[in-house]
Amino acid sequence: MTQNTPHQPSRRDRLKPAELVGISGVMALFVSLTILLTTRDVVLSLIAFGITFIVALVVIAMLVLGIKPNADEKSDMDEQDGH
Is 23 within 8 Å of 60 (Cβ atoms)? Predict the structure, then answer.
């Protein structure tokens, strides 16, 4: 790839954020439905959904940031930096 050619992310790279948000949403929905079926309180269930969604999203994002890039990703980053 030449220096003037912009990097085109793969489909997997483009969908990765949607996967993480989806996983957080499923976790939040599970907790919310569990609380709704247990307490029958809709407001408490919505609060739990919001809190669980945000906490799950932050935890998953931190875990993803901790992953070390492989050789292909390192070469791609060097190429984008112009080295």
Answer: yes
Residue 13 has what pLDDT?
A: 75
Scan for tokens 């990765």, then name that residue: 16
DSSP string of the chain? --TTSPP---HHHHHHHHHHHHHHHHHHHHHHHHHHHHH--HHHHHHHHHHHHHHHHHHHHHHHHTSPP-HHHHHHHHHHHT-
* Total number of domains in the chain: 1
Residue 2 phi/psi, 5-degree rounding, is -85, 170
Q: Which residues span the domain enclosing 40?
A: 15-81
The answer to whether position 23 is within a domain reads: yes
Intervals of the chain under pLDDT 70: 1-6, 83
